[in-house]
Design brief:
The complex is a heterodimer of chains A (320) and B (289). Helices cover 73% and strands 0% of the residues of chain A. With 320 residues, chain A is an all-alpha fold. Chain A has 2 domains: 81 residues, no CATH class; 180 residues, MetI-like (MetI-like fold, Orthogonal Bundle). Chain B has 289 residues and is mainly alpha-helical. Chain B has a domain of 198 residues: MetI-like fold (Orthogonal Bundle), CATH 1.10.3720.10. In chain B, strands 1-2 form a two-stranded antiparallel ribbon. The chains are: A mainly alpha (320), B mainly alpha (289). At the A-B interface, helix 1, helix 3, helix 4, helix 5 and helix 6 of A face helix 1, helix 2, strand 1, helix 3 and helix 4 of B.
Amino acid sequence: MARTEAVALRREATAAAWWRINATALLFMGPALLLVLVFFLAPVVITFTMSLTDLATSTGLSNWQWIGLENFARIFRSQFWLTILGNTVVYVAVVLAFNVLVGLGVALLTMHMEPKAGGVFRALWLLPRISPSVVYALLWVWAAASPPFGMLNYIVAPFGLEQRFWLQSDPWLIVILINGFVGASFGMLIFTSAIKAIPEDLFRAARVDGASALQIVRRITLPLIKWPILFVLVYQTMSLFASYEYIYLTTNGGPGLYATETWSLWAFHTALSNYYGNLEFAYGAAMSAILVLMGLAISIVLLRVFRFGQLVAEPRVEVE
Amino acid sequence: MAAAVAERAPGTFRWSSLVPYAVLALWTLPIIVLYVWLFYSSFFPRIEGFRPIGAFTFDNWRFLWDPQSVPQMRNRPAILPLTLNTFIFSAMTSAVGLLISSMAGYAFSRLRFKGRRLMLGGVLLLHSFPSVTLLIALFVVLRALGLYDKLVGVILVQTAFALPFGIWIMKGFFDNVPWDLEMSALVDGAGRFRTWLRIMLPLVKPGLLALAVLLFVEGWNQFLLPFVFMPSGSQQTLSTLVKGILGEGRFVDYGLLTAVGLYYIAPVLILFVLAQDQLMRIYAGGVKG
C-alpha cells in the first residue's frame, strides 16, 4: 500500500517536473514560435493556396475565386516562359561558377599570405556584402554608364573596343559581375574557416617533404575541404534561384522584353511591381510556389546530407 | 594557423611567395576602384572615368543643409526624418531580434523539452530557406493584419527573417558557456528566467554585441522590405531614397548620388572597421558545413 503510494507520488512529481520544464521552454520559445508561425509557416501555406486563386488588385482581398491550376497552365502558355527559364539557368550557372571559383581562389590565396595581409584582402571582399544593396548597385550602374562617365569604357578603350552604354549593350555582363563580386564572399568565408580547421601538422609535414604550394593545395587542402565546397555549391544554387535584388536594381530584367528577367524577378514583377497597375498576386504566387517548393527540397537535402543529427544533439547535462 | 600555411624558413625569400599577392590584388582591383570612386565622386562636380572635372567641392553634399536647392530632393521626404526612420527600423529589428533569439537560443541550448529536435531542425531548415520567395504571401499577411505600410509591420518581417540565423548563433554562444555557473544558480533556487537574465546573458555579452551589430547593419541596409511593404513617403528609408534618385533616368547626377550613398553607407563602414573581427567570425560561424 505504502509502496504504491510512493510510486504514485514519484510519478506525480515527475509529471510536475515535466510540465514545468515544458512550460518554461514555451515561455522562452513563445515569441520566436509566434513570429515563425506568422511570417514563415503561414506565408508558405498562403503561397500554395493563393496560387490556386485569381487574387489580384482587380479582385481585391474579398472578391477572388478558386481557379484550380489555371495559373500554372498560364505560366506555361506564356510566350516568355522559356526565355525566362533559359535566362534563369544561365544566370544561376554562370554566377554560381564565378562565386565558388573566386571564393575558393580568394580563400586559398589569402591563406598563403602573411595573416595580416590576408585579413585585409578578405575584408575588402566582404565590402560588397556589408554594403547596402542600393549603394553597391549604384557603383555598378556607374561603372557601366554611357560615355563619358563609366569606368568600363575607360578600361576597354586601350583594347580598341567601342564606347558604349553597357547596361543596354551587354546587360548580362553587368548582371554576372554585380552578383559575382558580392556572392564570392560567402564561399570565401566558409572555405577560409574550413582551411583554418585543418591541423597545421599536415602542412608542415608536406613542406618538410618538399611539396610546392600548388601540390599542397591540390593534395591536402582541396580534398580536405570537399564537404564545405559541396555545401556552398548547393546552398548558393538555391539562393541564386531565389534572388533578384541586384538584377532589379541594375537592368530590372531589361533591356527590352525580358532580356535579363529571371524566374524570381518575373514573380516579383507580376505580383508586386509592374507598370500595368494590376498586381496579380495569385499568378505571381504560382511562380513563387515553384521556387518555395525547390527551396524546401534543397533545404531538406542540406539538413540530411550535412550531418543534421549531430547538430541537434540533446543538451549534455540537465538539472531538475 | 593561417601562419602555418604561409610560413617559411627565415631568410629564404623567394619571388614566388609574391605570386598570391599579385594575383589577388588584380582580382580585387574592381572592388577597390568602385569604392574609391564612391568617395572621390562625392567631392567633385563630375567625374569622367577616373578624371575629375572641376575643383574639389562640398556642393554635392548640399542635400544635407539646403535640400531645396537640389532638384532631385524637392519632392521627397526630408533627409533627417528618413535617417531617423532608417535608424528606428534597424535599432528595433536589432533589439527585438536579439531578445527573441537569445531566449530561444537559451532554450535550445539548455532545456530538454518536447519537440526540441523537431524545432531545432525547423530553425536549420529556415536558415537555408530563401525567405525572399515569401514576399508575395507576406504582402497578403501584412494586409490582413493591418500592418501594411506601417513601420511596425516591416520591423516584424525583418526580425522574423533574421531569427533562424540569430537563434542558431545564440545557441552556439550558450553551448560554449560551462555548466557550473548556471548549475549553482539553479541549485540556489533561482528560476530559469532569472538565471538566463542574470547569469547567462552577461556571460555571452561579446556574442550579443556582435549579433546586435550584425542585425543592425542588416536592417540599415535593407531595401526590398521597406520598398515593397512601406510605399508611402513619410515612412521611407534611406535605401528607398537612393533607389528613387537612381531610378530617375539614364543621365543621373552621380555627384549627388554618391554623396547621398556615402552618407548612407558611412555608419556601416564605421561599424565594420570597429567590429570587423567579430563580424567576420559571426558571418563564418552562421553557416555550418
